[in-house]
């Protein structure tokens, strides 16, 4: 095992200790993270191989997205050619709302609420304009699925709902008793 992979494993274990659930990576995911670092010079915190959507998702440390993407997207295109899959990047944040905003394209999101439900689970409600909801959800729900996967993996949020303003009950006409 090369020095980079060993160092990367140590960093992942350190970060995982701070999380409620430890993230376990396969040898293939570790190899992809090492490749990511060699190609982009950015550090990936995590890697998810999504067979269902034929993509690899890298979670990048805050402030390193530009480095990972490269000038005009050249670096990310080079990485996609090497791994022969679509590569998607998400900038990490310790704040669940900001993290979900990074996952789903912050320009299209009006508001994100994290709720604790009566059964003890957490739920994220992402509010978007009705005319942008389809873009936020993504083709075949790929963006919504990515948000659900990552919200659960990092913040134990079991449900991510993407709704338009009109779908929020009693939003503008709340009655206080």
Mean of all residue-level pLDDT scores: 85
Largest sheet: 3 strands, mixed
The topology string of helices and strands comes to: HHEEHHEHEEHHE
Q: Overall 3D geometry?
A: globular
Helix content: 40-55%
Give the number of domains: 2
Residue windows where pLDDT falls under 50 for at least 5 positions? 5-10, 12-20, 172-177
Account of the protein in words:
- The protein has 177 residues and is α/β, with parallel strands linked by helices.
- The chain has 2 domains: 1-92, GMP Synthetase, Chain A, domain 3 (2-Layer Sandwich), CATH 3.30.300.20; 93-177, K homology (KH) domain (GMP Synthetase, Chain A, domain 3), CATH 3.30.300.20.
- 41% of the residues lie in helices and 24% in strands.
- It is built from 7 helices and 6 strands.
- It has helices at 3-17, 27-40, 65-69, 74-83, 96-104, 133-137, 142-155; strands at 44-50, 55-60, 86-91, 109-116, 122-128, 157-164.
- It has a 3-stranded mixed beta sheet with strand order 1-2-3. A 3-stranded mixed beta sheet has the order 4-5-6.
- β1 (44-50) and β2 form a beta hairpin.
- α1 (3-17) packs across α2 (27-40), α2 runs antiparallel to α4 (74-83) and α5 runs antiparallel to α7 (142-155).
- The radius of gyration is 18 Å and the shape is globular.
- It starts with a helix and ends in a 13-residue tail after the last strand.
């Amino acid at each position: 095992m090369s020095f980079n992979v060993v160092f990367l494993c140590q960093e992942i274990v350190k970060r995982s200790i701070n999380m409620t659930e430890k993230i376990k990576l396969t040898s293939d995911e570790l190899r992809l993270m090492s490749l990511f670092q060699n190609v982009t010079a950015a550090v990936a915190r995590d890697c998810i191989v999504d067979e269902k959507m034929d993509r690899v998702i890298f979670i990048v440390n805050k402030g390193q997205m530009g480095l990972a993407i490269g000038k005009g997207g050249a670096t990310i295109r080079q990485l996609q050619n090497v791994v022969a899959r679509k590569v998607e990047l998400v900038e990490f944040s310790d704040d669940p709302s900001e993290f979900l905003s990074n996952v789903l394209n912050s320009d299209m999101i009006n508001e994100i609420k994290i709720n604790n439900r009566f059964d003890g689970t957490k739920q994220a409600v992402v509010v978007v304009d009705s005319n942008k909801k389809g873009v936020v959800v993504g083709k075949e729900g790929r963006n919504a699925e990515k948000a659900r996967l990552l919200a659960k993996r990092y913040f134990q949020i079991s449900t991510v709902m993407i709704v338009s303003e009109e779908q929020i009950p009693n939003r503008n006409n709340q009655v206080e008793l």
